[in-house]
Amino acid sequence: MKRIGALLLASLIAASAAAQTVKIGVVNTFSGPNASFGELGDKAMKLYMKLHANELPAGVKLELVTRDDGGPNPDKAKQLAQELIVRDKVSLVTGAVFTPNALAIAPLATEAKIPFLVINAGTSVVTTRSPYIVRDSFTLWQSSYPLGQWAAKKYKRAYTLVSDYGPGHDAEAAFTEAFKAAGGQLVGSVRVPLQNPDFAPYMQRVKDAKPDALMVFIPAGKTATSVMKTFADLGLASAGVHLIGPGDITTDEELPNMGDVALGVMTVFHYSAAADRPANKRFVEAWKKEYGANSTPNFAAVAAWDGMAMIYTAIREQKGKLDPERTLDIFKHWKNPDSPRGPIAIDPETRDIVQNEYLREVRKVNGQLANVEIETVAQALKDPWKELKKGK
User: Fold this and answer.
1) How far is Cα 124 from Cα 128, in angstroms, rounded to an integer?
2) Which of 17, 101, 299, 301 might form a disulfide with 77, Cβ 3.0–4.6 angstroms?
3) How far apart are CA 333 and CA 347, in angstroms?
4) Is residue 243's pLDDT more than 50?
5) How distant, in Å, are the alpha carbons of 151, 213, 214 from that of 154?
6) In this model, does residue 49 exceed pLDDT 90?
7) Are 171 and 191 in contact (CB under 8 A)?
8) What's the pLDDT score for residue 6?
9) What are 90-116's pLDDT values in tens digits?
10) Which residues partner with 60 through β-bridges?
11) Are 85 and 112 in contact (CB under 8 A)?
12) What b/e sequence results for 97-129 when a residue is b if at least 16 CB atoms lie within 10 Å of its CB, and e otherwise?
């Protein structure tokens, strides 16, 4: 009996020693007007962990160490990331809704030589700020450049209205370059404050300019609804102005709050919850089963979902013992032909996402507003900003 007891104790000690917890630091936005980004990303991560728990190596556990940056606050984001790296000893950092926050974390990733997986911030320059940054979300150039090419086939005159920060500047530049190169005429442009803008005076200027189309980029969520309603209230649609933009302006979870004023709005984007791809149907079905029929995943959720797939791949290939350089190399060569958003991959040269872009129209489907994908306007698209810079 004593021998059996000793063997049992030894096996328990060995099992305990073999067990390993991989800590992932998450710096995301869970409070303030853009809290939905963090909330939906968190739900996606936890749903992935629940559905794929048996894919981790034996004895390996995954722990999310989550921190709230409160919105566009680079100093706080940097502080939180530093604490996660130094105090919590995380194996990698992920998150970053806003570009200023991602840029603040970038030098920490370089100094600590720790992978930083960006699952939102969409300014093209982000991945150039640290060799340890990999992005699986999108860039504004990816959606806005093909949007400009498409718009030039339909409209002669366009006006741009964007938020006055990195992603807005990228959306404006990408759309303008593509639209003008394809023969379109830009009749005006305006940048609005990122925080709490009053859109009415800007929309009146647009109406007075009488463009055929207004291209808008603002952060997804409540601000997009404000734009939509101001556009309707000032009668721009009845004046012949067509509202277009990257997908942020009609993000899936916010459509019910916009109402019928969103009907007919055309966007170019890499994801729609209404897409009929089998992988997306499975993703949305699992989401609604877990979080309720009235909850809808958006682009932030699908980026977090795919980000977890990347992290699980790194954990499996290293049997739970993550080496930063090896993890980075796995991320740089990661691909998934069956993501909810279609085939995706990481470009090893730029460490940025490669994905399809879809032309979408807001329509009613079974009585509910949805971004219906009409066609694929770009396949396996690398970040156009980086591609256009090559050789210059």
Assistant:
1) 8
2) 101
3) 7
4) yes
5) 5, 9, 12
6) yes
7) no
8) 46
9) 999 999 999 999 999 999 999 999 999
10) 20
11) yes
12) bbbbbbbbbbebbeebebbbbbbbbbbbbbbeb
Tens of pLDDT along 312-323? 999 999 999 999
Between the alpha carbon of residue 117 and those of residues 25, 92, 135, 305, 309, the distances in Å are: 10, 8, 6, 12, 12
Burial of 137 (0-12, 13-18, 19+ CB in 10 A): buried
Same fold, 2-138+278-348 and 141-269+356-389: yes
pLDDT at 88: 97
141-269+356-389 has CATH 3.40.50.2300 classification: yes
Give the domain ranges of the chain. Answer: 2-138+278-348, 141-269+356-389
pLDDT digits (tens, 9 = 90+) for 127-173: 999 999 999 999 999 999 999 999 999 999 999 999 998 899 999 99
* Residue 93 structure tokens: 């950092």
- Mind listing the pLDDT tens digit for each residue in 338-367? 999 999 999 999 999 999 999 999 999 999
